[in-house]
Amino acid sequence: MTEEYLPAFVQSHFTKPSSSLSAEVDLFVDYSTCVATASTSDFYNATHPAIVDCNPNFYSIKGRNIKFETNNREQVYTLLRTIREVNNADLKQAVHQIVNGNHQAVIITDGEYFPNNIVADNLNNPYLAPEFRTWLKKGLDIYIYSEPYLESNRFNKFRYYIIFTDDKMEDNLNEKFYRNAPDASSVLVLHLTADAPKLDKKSKIVFNQIFNPTKLAEDVYALDLSWRDMETLLKDEDDYIFRGLKVEMKPEDVYKVDEVEPVVYQLYSPYEEYVDSLALSDKKILADVSSLRELEDVFEIDEKVFKKSGEIVLKLDDDFYEDLSVDHENVLRVDFVVDEAEDNFTRNEDLNRGFKWTSIARSNGHAPNTSVYQSISQVVSEPSMNPGRNKKVIATVYLYTSQY
Fold this sequence. Notes:
Helix content: 10-25%
Strand order of the largest sheet: 3-2-1-4-6-5-7
Radius of gyration: 26 Å
Shape: elongated
Structural class: alpha+beta
Strand content: 25-35%
Distance between the termini: 14 Å
Number of domains: 2
Number of helices: 13
Number of strands: 19
């Protein structure tokens, strides 16, 4: 069998995930004091061009009234500079509207939630947790910029720019916002996701020098050695198959990935079926890949290197077992999945300090308000949201090799 059809097989059977979001952008503005007095904020003013240039649908949040105002760029710009105070914004309903739609969105708010003034400002009510879960379970991303400011010359609070986007989108809303945001060390950034981290864009696979790989397509390689040869040759200290893929782990990520594992599938049979179909028909017939055979004890990751730098170094498993077929070539799919990830938010004061403030309400004695913090923490600490629990895939590589 030949490897020449492998790129077409991979492309037709294993489509890379794409975004479910449309190109439209929604802008929700809380008309309370935090935005009404933001005209003196360098950060607020500097980020206007990125928002306006997205030609957003502008929604005002005036108390319990959420109203579409305009999607005219000039009017959006003017509205952002002429906010007049209307308090008690219904933030929960605004975010509910965002996460149940399919647009990218940004909401600018101080996070204070006074529903009918019944329970003051919901001091530790995780009122946004259900909405955050809804968005993240779609495989999407939330970025929160926390800008400190002083309200009424007395209260230390935060102005939040909460961006609902998808990292799978090229030049997404967060990337545009980040490019325009001034370099302000006081502004914390939080990346909220339940998905696997991305690879560093500069990552590049580098094979061991014993190989003479042929790159058939992106992430698809043919190797000129059998696994029996590899097992013999990969014995010295440079015993890796390839290295160079680096997982992008940033301080603002709510999860810290501790371990990655390779999950290996045998694709020989469906690929053979696909190649045979080409000889019988002008049409490319899709093979059945619904239940791929998983192989055990084939590869492992160098854990020491990963913990130190986030680099994936692929090696033969210490308990390498001859689970690879001896009577034909091997077509392997290698998924690099999150095996263990820990909560990097809840007890991390360096990251979570931008989501707690002193309440302005006299009725509760100006107690600490942790409602936004709790909204995030309740989501991140939930086991079902953890990318390690769900074995989220960071990257996939396909390898074609000679007979064992």
